[in-house]
Amino acid sequence: MKETGRSGCPINLTLEILGDRWSLIVLRDMMFGNRRHFRELLSKSDEGIASNILADRLKRLLENGLISRRDDASHKQKGIYSLTEMGISLVPVFAAMADWGRRFLPVTPEMSIRAEILAEGGPVLWRKFMDELRFLHLDAPRPTQSILDDLTTAYREAVERKRVAEAETA
Amino acid sequence: MKETGRSGCPINLTLEILGDRWSLIVLRDMMFGNRRHFRELLSKSDEGIASNILADRLKRLLENGLISRRDDASHKQKGIYSLTEMGISLVPVFAAMADWGRRFLPVTPEMSIRAEILAEGGPVLWRKFMDELRFLHLDAPRPTQSILDDLTTAYREAVERKRVAEAETA
DNA sequence: GCCAACCGCTTGCAAAATGCAAGCGGTTCT
DNA sequence: AGAACCGCTTGCATTTTGCAAGCGGTTGGC
């Protein structure tokens, strides 16, 4: 996505950076799955991104300022990717997209529980979540409450409910 | 964008439908520019979509239920494209994306004035706008106030301001 | 100290999507 | 009658994607 200079419209400029099938998936996994290493993003993804595509997207997200990269002190080869303020600010976009998706598309219950919580919590909850992301990815102070824990717990419980339900019918 | 069956995550499913560089551009022009015919979408776009891409995107948006198509009674060759409730429901997504874009990307002032108004108005304004879209695209009753007029007027005034400013420096 | 496992990331190649220009059969306007 | 316009398709070159293998280096267990 080079400098095409198509128009100064905010929607268009956003799409020039994020308008493909993988960029937002990578950011989603960093944001909601707290995946920070290349391998984590590569192998723990539900959608199975290819390694060359992941490398390319990370490079472009870096160039565009959505994420940053630093070396992992505990492992000379590992890099740690973090969200920048620009990346963290996408929380409302994710919340809006996820809410739309869960209302109109064939989502699975366990994958949409987090979207529901974000939709119900509204901007107040989003701001709390963004504060937590600033703690996890930038050097902001730790908030008292962990929204990410709440979301992850709710997701795990939904997965467990599904597992039990499937075990019963088997 | 065939049935890849990658995951039931709302974000992923949304991206499988809208995750490319043009689908949301087309919907944006229908929604905010009230462009309803093929030629209007083709030639009045600031970004210059190619005709084969436009045809393909309209087909896919139709298949996915975001828009509908009917014949234009006044012209046998023309089709009129309309947003469905599913398409109209993207208003909060557009508002979030536009707000993000105007804060972090090099938008031009006249192109971001509508994003500002939507951000300031919040969900209350979005709902009014969606009601108006239901009037314009579905068969809902006409609302008392036209948000689209407000947005368009603000945009035109911003363009005019820019024109005057440029004329002064010339 | 050795070796298997893992690290981020690259390479080569086939398949698909995109971008561009021209054009088609038909309709409408003058 | 002729020009302009209608939605949309075609052919073709370029770019992007997807997949599998692999590279040089690091780490951890024995």
From TrEMBL, chains A, B:
Domain HTH hxlR-type as annotated: residue spans: 9-109
InterPro entries in alphabetical order: HTH_HxlR, WH-like_DNA-bd_sf, WH_DNA-bd_sf
Source domain of life: Bacteria
Keywords of the record: DNA-binding, Transcription, Transcription regulation
Molecular function (Gene Ontology), one example: DNA binding
Organism listed in the record: Bosea lupini
Protein name in the entry: DNA-binding transcriptional regulator, HxlR family
SUPFAM superfamilies: Winged helix' DNA-binding domain (SSF46785)
